[in-house]
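pinging the channel bc i need a second pair of eyes. not urgent but kinda urgent?? the chain im working w is below, pasted from the shared doc
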Amino acid sequence: VPGFSAWDEGRDLAPVYDEFLTWLRILRWRRREPADRVPLLKAPQFLADLDAVLTAFPGARLLRLNRDSDAVAASSASLSWHQRRIQSDAAD
């Protein structure tokens, strides 16, 4: 696992986000969305890949939201629990 993690963290993500951009364009075309409509994309993974995201979306604007720290902790614990429940026979 450490070797895979090192490979994954060191790989070039530009092709991944180039393909994501292509799929996003196809989806927007299929929905008949106007070309000038600004899409709102939100995923925690974008933060980890920020350089690649900003390269793929050069005009991107970033929003930073402030949330109550107790609500963030509860949300994070819930997300972790649900993931563990899917990936394991025992989650507490």
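so Residues 9 and 67 are 28 Å apart (CA to CA). and The two ends are 24 Å apart (CA to CA). — does that match what u expected or am i reading it wrong
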